[in-house]
């Protein structure tokens, strides 16, 4: 028994043309405008947390309520900031990236027919 099926090969697409299109350049530019600043901001925030944990023991061990310390709150805020960044990216992608990506995909599919 043969497990191979006779499926047609996908149509040829000029990926260089798609890559060089103004829409793709705009998509890439919009992605970078979001990703680079947010990544830098998060990296600074994370490094601040690490540096405070390593060099500011007194500050980080300051009790706020019961056994909850500043360090624990900062650590939990790392998770919160990750979720916030994810939510911001999803909203940004839905508004600014997905419409352009959909247009590019449609153009590529139409040319391949």
Automatic annotation (TrEMBL):
It comes from Amycolatopsis speibonae. Keywords: Membrane, Transmembrane, Transmembrane helix. Pfam families: DUF485 (PF04341). It comes from the Bacteria. This is DUF485 domain-containing protein. The chain crosses the membrane at residues 34-52, 64-90.
